[in-house]
Amino acid sequence: MPPKFDRKLNQHGVKGAYYGGEWVDLEDCAGTFQPDSSKCSGCPTRATCPRSQSRNAAASTTNEDNLVYDVIIIGAGCIGTSIARELSRYSLKTLLVESADDVSQGATKGNSGIVHAGYDDKPGSVRAKFCWPGNQMFPQLDRELRFGYQKNGSLVVATSSKELEVLEELMERGNINGVKNLRIIQKEELFQMEPALNPVCIAALYAPDAGNVIPYEFAIALAENAVDNGVELRIRREVTAIAKGTEGCFEVDLRHWEPQDYVDVRKKMGKSIDGTESKEISLLSLVMRLCVSFPASIVVMEGLVRFGLLEPSSKDDTKMVMTIVAFISTALVLFLPGGKRHRGTSVLKDIVAKCPPPVGSGDDGKVTLKDMFQGGSGSKTVQHGATVALESVKAKYIINCAGSYSDQIARMIGDDSFYIKPRLGDYILLNRNQGHLAHSTIFPCPDPVLGKGVLVQQTLWGNLILGPTARDMHNKETRDMSNESIQEYILSKCKQLCPYFDAKEAIHGFCGARSKSSRGDWIIEPSSKDANFIHVAGIDSPGLAGSPAISLYVVELMQKAGLKMPPNINFNPNRAPIITPKVGLRGLKMGPPGKNDSDGKDEATMAKNVICKCEKVTELEVVRALRRSLPIDSTQGIRKRTRAGMGHCQGDAENYDCECRVRAIISRENGVSPEEVGGRPWPATSTLSQRWVYKDDMQKEGLEKRMNNN
Q1: Helix 658-670 and helix 635-642, axial crossing angle in degrees, nearest 10
Q2: pLDDT tens, 465-505?
Q3: Contact 252, 398 (CB under 8 A)
Q4: Hey, which residues does 523 pair with through a beta bridge?
Q5: Cβ atoms within 10 A of the Cβ of 264, count?
Q6: Cβ atoms within 10 Å, residue 38
Q7: CA 690 remoteness from chain centre
Q8: Residue 224 belongs to what H/E stretch?
Q9: Residue 673: how many CA atoms within 13 Å on its side-chain side?
Q10: What angle do CA 516, 517, 523 make, to 5 degrees?
């Protein structure tokens, strides 16, 4: 029997929240984690976004011939969104393009979320230059953007006198890199901090300034605030070519794709396949509305005559008024929105009944290595994407933040100065009831060849995360590892750090592709082929920690390249959170669809209506996410913003059917049919054999067995 541990732990959104790195109790959240929303960017909430683009993109996509952007950022991970947010401080025309179906779908979605302190990086490297300064920027960033940042500290544990020497070396390296507050703690203090550690541990290097975030929530917050402050976003846009035009501007060709299922539904309904509202007025509808406009001119004219404003004998005046009224009414018909795109029911219960069940088995949604370069589960291939439009945009400057695809983007301007050597990192996520076993981020003593190795960490939301692997794709042995071998590696290695976790409490598995460069370091520099083309490439760990400092440096590079950057006098750094902290089920209502649902207008009802039972996500939180500044058209997008479907049951239809409920809300809010709303693909990058582990005894027993294999 394992020893008993104190199971109390702070979980973001439960009786409080993390704000600026520190825990804030629920009664103190008002004015801190929960600000006056009227003072935040993007508030009060508005209607949902157009399909696959931000609201401020709608006008520019219709007449692009004469539009020249100051900057185009390629890639909307934590690096691209951080730079976009920093550039939004200036009065610039900035376009952020992403090949996947949402921001943060690449490496940003598939990593540990650690805000490293910077003691591990080689002194003098580009990594070392940015990691510690970036780390120090996170508390203030979180106070502004409220994505949730927990300063939990990190521990590198030693189990022998030889490993103690490595800790001394790491601390010296950290001192050279400018990292503050590092110290080596001995066994007694170590086990006071982490009682669930393996008893063989004798000491640890403690970095109190290390922290953790949910990486995709971090990128979403950056992107929201950037768009609120003027940056334009387009998703599902693959860059296919870059050329330098005669005017000295870059000309960038984009392929706009949409999921094939979506395209098929739109065709069947007689709607535009690219989702643009302006093309959705049918010819019959247009004729009918025009027919109404001309009689309206007669009615207006008669009113003018009745009130003595027009003499009936004045034929010229009559003709003039009829012409003016007809012109105005016709203009209104042609240019005013045609109402909601879908005129079906708005009753959630009825929409839920029409939603297809979630997918949790099979291989149709499997992600390949190539897919991971361009958005993983949100990529064109996995979503069976079809090209719906070809776009061409111009810009004075380009910033290449395309992650694992950044070398291919560089090749488009003839730059072959580096290439990407992808390394995959696999993880297993355990239920919240395991989170109390680790308070800090716990690393083993690093391997001279493999580096940091696995980790055990409590996430911001209280889960326990295990992993990652470090599978170099140029190495056949690691590239071709089976799912079972990956699980065994993670579980058995993590057991050596913390032997008391229960592998049967696994709820999810995922993988991310690290974009390691052929140079062995980060590449943040102007291209040798064109000084107006900035590379921010090969950003592997600790890129998340360094991202805020990297964005400041990129702004300096842009200024040196000659970009004029007048300040944006309307810049608002503040963003309100999407989630609302709760105390259990206090004030909440659960029940079958239809029992507690709102009409989409009553916020008090929405705030009580539980949509996801495991994570206690409310209808209001889902609606709040949809009415922000980023386009959302899938349950995956809501899952990343609210955690609906991320809990113990993973959206099981037989439990609470939260995925279908979310799908119904998206349908209602976006004014589309439920068939036009995307779902969660399976298996994506998971090593699990099926999505609903909690009721699969055979899979749970297999995980436990692999944990105990040494």
Answers
A1: 110
A2: 999 999 999 999 999 999 999 999 999 999 999 999 999 99
A3: yes
A4: 537
A5: 14
A6: 8
A7: 24
A8: helix 215-228
A9: 16
A10: 115
Q: Residues with Cβ < 8 Å from 336, sequence gap 6 or more?
A: none
Q: How far apart are CA 394 and CA 408, in angstroms?
A: 19
* Digit-coded pLDDT (tens) for 140-173: 999 999 999 999 999 999 999 999 999 999 999 9
Work out whether the CA dihedral 185, 191, 192, 193 comes out positive or negative.
Answer: positive
Say if CB 390 and CB 255 are below 8 A apart: yes
Angle of helix 283-306 relative to helix 315-335, nearest 10 degrees, comes to 140
Look up tokens 């099981």; give the residue.
652
Taking CA atoms, 73 is separated from 59, 93, 399, 495, 521, in Å, by 19, 11, 5, 42, 21
Work out the burial of residue 569: count CB atoms within 10 Å of its CB; fewer than 13 is exposed, 13-18 middle, 19 or more buried. exposed
How far is residue 289's CA from residue 530's CA, in Å, rounded to a whole number? 52
Contact 504, 703 (CB under 8 A): yes
What token pair was written down for 524? 């943040």
CB 20, CB 139: distance < 8 Å: yes
DSSP state of 337: -
Closest CA to 667 of 431, 267, 246, 348: 348
The two tokens of residue 198 are: 């393996």
Taking the C-alpha atoms of residue 649 and residue 190, their distance in angstroms, rounded to an integer, is 34
DSSP secondary structure code for residue 661 in this structure: H
Distance CA(146)–CA(138), nearest Å, equals 11
**DSSP conformational letter for 150:** B
Residue showing tokens 């945009």: 393
Distance of alpha carbon 307 from alpha carbon 316, whole angstroms? 18
Place of tokens 């004029």: 564
Which pLDDT belongs to residue 325? 46
Residue 99 CB coordination number (10 Å): 27
Structure tokens at 667: 């349908």
Q: Report the alpha-carbon distance of residue 555 to residue 515 in Å, rounded.
A: 22
44 prior amide bond cis, ω within 30 = yes
C-alpha–C-alpha distance, residues 334 and 352, integer Å: 34
Cis, peptide link before residue 199, omega less than 30° from 0? no
Taking 70 as the threshold, does the pLDDT of residue 537 lie above it? yes
Task: Name residues whose C-beta falls within 8 Å of residue 586's C-beta, 6 or more positions apart in sequence.
Answer: none
**Which of 646, 632, 582 is closest to 608 using CA atoms?**
582
